Amino acid sequence: MTQEDFKSTVAQEIENQGQDQPLQRLTLDWVKGSSANNYTYHFEWMGRPIIQFPQDILAMQEIIWRVRPELIIETGIAHGGSLVFYASMLELLGGDRWIVGIDIDIRPHNRAAIEAHPMAKRIVLVEGSSIDPAIVARIRDMASGKSPVLVVLDSNHTHEHVLAELRTYAPLVSAGSYLVVFDTLIERMPESFFPNRPWGPGNNPMSAVDTFLAETDRFAPDAMIENKLLITVAPKGYLKCLKE
Description:
The protein is an alpha/beta fold.
């Protein structure tokens, strides 16, 4: 089988997965069941908790290797595992590439661990709200002259906040790159899963994505990624930038 034949076969298999409704239901049932033991909290990247499905991390690896961004912007950094992961990918790519992590509360022990990490040389930490005008102005200055730019949204998961982030950071994303919105899966989970959270079905990143996509023709969900992963926190959340 030639490389072209292999890719064609894989693409067809991925499309078949996406159309397999029993498999889709089985996957969602597994996700619901695994959440009882905080499955996503059990993984690290180079020593830092990453708090993601491994499948989504592999998808981000493929995107970063293909897009080869000069700058990645991430909102919401928690323990910093995803920052370290993105920085390690940029280190492999080489050149003047870095990741900016924005969080309204960077706890001192997390900051210390991130700044002491071998990948810290490619990481810039910014504390504050991702939609605060002063923070946004600072990030826009950092992004000036950088291309491609990749954006990852993973902070406050309410509709209002994510929609504000989408409208704010979408203009920074380069054509062919991605605006990735994590935790759109909230829309497909039972309301009982979020008893102490301000978000839930109807008020979450997916509802924000739906509103955002109705306002623009620059982005579209990359269905192939979702169909390939099956297990993902970001259904409809891998938004490919179609044009400048």
